[in-house]
Amino acid sequence: MTGNERRMQWFGAIAHGLCHAYMLIFPAILLIMVSDLSADLFRVGVLGNVAYFAFGFGAIPAGYLASRFSSRTVVLTFLYGAAITAVALSFLPSIQALYAGFLLLGLFCSLYHPAGLSIIATIKDRGPAMAYHGVSGNLAIAFAPLLFGTVGMYGGWRGAYRVAGIAGIALAFLAHRITFDMPHEERPSAEKQGGRFAEEGRGIHLALLYLIVALNGFIYRGVLTFLPSWFAEAGGSNLAQAGLVTSLALTLGIAGQVFGGRVYRTGFPERSLLFLGIVALPLLAWIGRLPLATSGVIAAAFLFVHFATQPVTNSLVAQYTRSGKRSIGYGFSFFLGFGTGSFASSASGYVARNDGIAAVFPFLAWFAAGIVVIGSILAVRAGLHPHVSK
User: Fold this and answer.
1) DSSP class of residue 321?
2) Is the dihedral of CA 168, 149, 347, 135 positive or negative?
3) Please, are residues 138 and 253 in contact by the beta-carbon 8 Å criterion?
4) Long-range Cβ pairs for the range 62-71 (8 Å, 24+)
5) For residues 56 and 336, is the Cβ–Cβ distance under 8 A?
6) DSSP letter string over 324-382?
7) pLDDT tens across 16-37, in order?
8) Which terminus of the chain is more solvent-facing, meaning fewer CB atoms within 10 Å of its CB: N or C?
9) DSSP class per residue in 27-92
10) What is the pLDDT at residue 342?
């Protein structure tokens, strides 16, 4: 890796980690917001819904902006905009004003993935570069609950957003100082991009995959929003301790991504995706039904399997889309995963308000069952067209 590529890698790592960190402040301080705002879990859950929907929806125009302007400019806009918005959130007086603030935070964060991935994709040794980039995001996902749960316990939810915003401004300035040259990426041939299937596209296969992505996004958002709160409630602990348990469980997601990359290389990705869905279903259903320690282990195992599906689905999006439409395919995939999945925040909040937080995970398991059904159809269709997996 050249010096220029290392600078690109560090630029992407800082931005990717911050992107996910901003989105995971909310689950870490959800219970504090419920108490401070004198609102129920459903009303506060809608706040997360607003931010997460904007996070997904904005990925579609973000791809256009990255092609119209430079990717670096779009990423820097995210870094400064999200940091300033996080600080502003800490001063908003009412839940009504917070809806607008959360919407803005989600929109700024949505700028990152289409632009940031286009930068990392120009690194010559793309595989390891993408792996390092993914690890930076997973590290933020893993440690955000611990960090912001601890800050929130002592400084309240406003303190958590204020600290994140101030740190974000400092890191945005650091990233701004990292300069690099974007090489012109050579357009790969259709053969290199997945053969005839990738060039022609298969609408039914892609539609089935997008359904799986949407359901996976719904489950992901529901679990990450309410898992720290359930650990705190079930263990009678504070948010810092609950955040530590959640962070430990999420660290397995890093290993899960590496495992998922190896799974895709087996040559039977659709079958592998179905297998992962079958394993995830009972694990998700049993979170919250068993004693705390056992549920913690089950949650960690579920997160390992869940994150293992991401390299498989991301690779299949590339395999199922025409070469000239790949960026649009990924933009739509991010929208479904993060945007459609955002409704899990309010839907799960409704379940938690009526039946308790532990009921959220069996509720989400029904969507995991949908993944198994759709994954079975996809695996059968892929078996009838074996060239699509090559």
Assistant:
1) S
2) positive
3) yes
4) 62/110, 62/111, 62/112, 62/113, 62/114, 62/115, 62/331, 63/114, 63/327, 63/328, 63/330, 63/331, 65/111, 65/115, 66/114, 66/115, 66/118, 67/327, 70/182, 71/115, 71/116, 71/118, 71/119, 71/182
5) yes
6) GGHHHHHHHHHIIIIIGGGHHHHHHHHHHHHH-GGGHHHHHHHHHHHHHHHHHHHHHHH
7) 999 999 998 988 888 888 888 8
8) C
9) HHTHHHHHHHTT--HHHHHHHHHHHHHHHHHTHHHHHHHHHHS-HHHHHHHHHHHHHHHHHHHTT-
10) 78
- Please, are residues 194 and 319 in contact by the beta-carbon 8 Å criterion? yes
Tokens of 377: 């159809």
Q: Distance between CA atoms of 380 and 246, rounded to whole angstroms? A: 36
In the block, residue with structure tokens 């917070």: 98
Angle at 377 between CA 284 and CA 310, to 5 degrees: 50
Q: Give the least confident one: 193-207, 241-255, 263-277, 376-390.
A: 193-207
Query: The tokens of 234 are what?
Result: 């079930």
Phi-psi label, residue 327: left if phi above 0, alpha if psi -120 to 50, beta otherwise: alpha
When pLDDT is averaged across residues 135-163 and rounded to a whole number, the result is 87
Encoded amino acid at 350, one letter: Y
| Domain match, 200 and 316 both | yes
| Interacting residues of 316 by C-beta distance below 8 A, sequence separation 6+ | 209, 269, 270, 273
Q: Is the pLDDT of residue 166 over 80?
A: yes
51-78 pLDDT, tens digit each: 888 988 888 888 778 777 788 899 999 9
> Which pLDDT tens digit goes with each residue over 214-263?
999 999 889 888 888 888 877 766 666 777 777 777 787 778 877 876 77
Q: Are residues 130 and 274 in the same domain?
A: no
pTM of the model: 0.73
Residue 67 tokens, joined: 């092609």
- Phi, psi dihedrals of residue 387, rounded to the nearest 5°: -70, -15
Domain tally, the chain: 2
Residue 25 is part of which domain span? 1-181
Q: Which amino acid is at 51?
A: A
pLDDT at 188 exceeding the cut of 50: no
Pair 259, 312: CB distance under 8 Å: no
- Domain end point (choices 181, 206, 227): 181
pLDDT tens-digit readout, 2-15: 888 889 989 999 99
Same domain, 247 and 177: no
pLDDT higher for 343 or 100? 100
CATH number at residue 287: 1.20.1250.20
